[in-house]
Amino acid sequence: MKSDKIPQIRDVFSSKIGVIAAAAGSAVGLGNIWKFPYITGVYGGAAFLFVYLGFIALIGLPIMLSEFMIGRKSRSNVFGAFKNLAPNSPWKYVGLLGVAAAVMILSFYGVVAGWSIDYIVKSLTDGFASKSPDELGIMFTQFIETPGLPIFYQLLFMLMTMAIVIIGVKDGIEKYAKILMPILILIIIVLDIRAVTLDGAKEGLNFLFHPDFSKLTADGVLSALGHAFFSLSLGMGTLITYGSYIGKQNNLAKTALIVTVSDTLIAILAGIAIFPAVFAFGIEPSSGPGLVFITLPNVFQQMPGGFFFSILFFLLLTVAALTSSISILEVVGAYFREELKIKRNLATVLATVMISIVGIFCSLSMGMFKEQTLFGLNFFDLLDWISANMLLPLGGLFISLFMGWYWGRKMIEDELANGSKLSRGLISAFIFVLKFIAPGAIAIVFLNGLGVF
Ligand code: PHE
């Protein structure tokens, strides 16, 4: 095992706020504002939300703390972390699973972030003005089906991600994220106020908050689990990688709690902005990946200053996507650097090129390759499904087993003794969840979702 000293070549976050900003920046992104409302709509609303919240509290939070601990202890990328902490064992392959998930996720993530950039431009040119909900729907579909512009914006977004990772996280994005994220939250709250005061808003709130558990399917439960991992950036080593940059005195438990709660609140706030409007404008809640892009332009039209708010909203959504995408690219980059011994900048460029190429196919699968499907899913949805619903929960399963059974109580107590003062009872509960509850629940939901029983 490596010594506890932080090797000079590795960056360390400068402050407590810096750690929270970076981890929350990773967690809060398209997952909260684009994906959460859209899959909540697909899986029928409140019942999905409640199951999702259950997974966040019971499984997400303990695994987030575990990832931070593994990262800080090993001071390594996700593959190296398991290699250092469990030498000569197959645990390191959990790291490879994470790298694969990162490649898949960033491929389609870049496409959606590209849509968001296009919507900044559309906002600037007043492109939503006097369009009906139907017309806005058609506008979105036609846009994502064309081969040119979406790929251009996707590549632009990937270039921005790469540039930030190369220039350095601390001086650039971390500083701005601290200012911009609170503004994004404020805008969502303004949108919430407008949305809930629309005619017919109540139906939307009922959809989001009054559960009908009979609507829940095994696939829906698996997606709620997968999304808990996706939204909190868990299961693939993002927070192991970030944890490796966290100093010894940081209270990891508190950091994990703050990040989990903020991420969840922002998703719910996004839901409150979307669903009342969905019902008010007669949009199908289950309309899929376009939900946010179709619904919100309608809301902007119905509010004073809508022109201004829409520019700001899509701009900040892009920034939120950037603070997440850099954390995904960093998983692959750190692996290339430290395990394959590729030089820092070259590693980042190579990872970006590889992911961008896969991403181009994701974008094309919305239009040109729409008919090419596997298990009824196009390439974009397939990568999303495999990464979020399979690789991340599997990663989480192994991480909890690793902590609960391989590390065990003594190591966990030692690591928590650095800065995190948890009572003995809480530590026992934490270990119990890692040993039994998390792996058991993940295994059952996973097998059930795959139709094994
Ligand atoms: N959590 C990010 C979001 O919600 C996406 C992400 C997934 C980031 C996995 C890192 C790892 O947008």
Automatic annotation (TrEMBL):
Pfam families: SNF
Record keywords, A-Z: Membrane, Symport, Transmembrane, Transmembrane helix, Transport
Localization in the cell: Membrane
Membrane topology value: Multi-pass membrane protein
One GO MF term: symporter activity
Transmembrane segment boundaries: 12-34, 46-65, 93-117, 151-169, 181-201, 221-245, 257-283, 307-334, 346-366, 386-406, 426-447
Record-linked CDD domains: SLC6sbd_Tyt1-Like
PROSITE patterns in UniProt: NA_NEUROTRAN_SYMP_1 (PS00610), NA_NEUROTRAN_SYMP_3 (PS50267)
GO cellular component assignments: membrane
Family: Belongs to the sodium:neurotransmitter symporter (SNF) (TC 2.A.22) family.
Protein name: Transporter
Organism: Ancylomarina euxinus
